[in-house]
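Propose amino acids for all 183 sites.
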């Protein structure tokens, strides 16, 4: 009788602890680039666009074909996202943002005539950037956030700019977190 009471009490304790709110998802086991070091007290130099144009070409291919998987290297990867975000449910929020990115690609294809024949012209990283200190936007690591970058494509011989709403850096690379306005 005593051992069954102890088992019930232990099960209740485990259930109660599991029901407590978590303040943040567990820290992923990836190396943190020096550009995103938690102890940065001043903004690090803003990284150049680097290989963003090459990866933006993959987004253009997704706009042409509808195959969004090929454009996922332009979107912030899961592990860095989880390292950056200091919130309960960060993994779920990452999934929400990933679905929004794919939906935004599909929406651009529906709303922009001729994208199935688009060609890449250039990618312009915005100069409208803000250094996000630890604690802003529920983050536990600092990063640069740039707003309204431009992906320029050619459609039927005419240049068409497409606004890339938000990009953040991880190390020396830039990634999309919001392709279009996020609601």
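Proposal:
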């Amino acid at each position: 009788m005593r051992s069954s009471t102890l088992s019930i009490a232990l099960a209740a304790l485990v259930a109660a602890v599991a029901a407590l709110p978590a303040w943040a998802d567990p820290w992923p086991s990836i190396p943190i680039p020096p550009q995103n070091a938690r102890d940065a007290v001043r903004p690090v130099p803003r990284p150049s666009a680097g290989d963003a144009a090459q990866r933006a070409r993959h987004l253009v291919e997704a706009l042409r074909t509808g195959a969004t998987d090929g454009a996922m290297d332009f979107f912030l990867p899961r592990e860095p996202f989880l390292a950056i975000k200091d919130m309960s449910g960060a993994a779920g929020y990452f999934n929400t943002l990933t679905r929004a990115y794919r939906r935004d690609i599909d929406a651009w294809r529906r709303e922009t005539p001729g994208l199935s024949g688009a060609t890449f012209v250039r990618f312009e990283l915005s100069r409208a950037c803000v250094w996000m200190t630890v604690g802003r936007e529920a983050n536990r690591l600092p990063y640069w956030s740039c707003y309204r970058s431009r992906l320029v494509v050619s459609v039927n011989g005419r240049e068409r700019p497409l606004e890339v709403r938000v990009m953040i850096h991880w190390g020396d690379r830039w990634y999309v977190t919001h392709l279009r306005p996020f609601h």
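Residues 25-178 form one domain. Residues 90-111 form the longest helix (22 residues).
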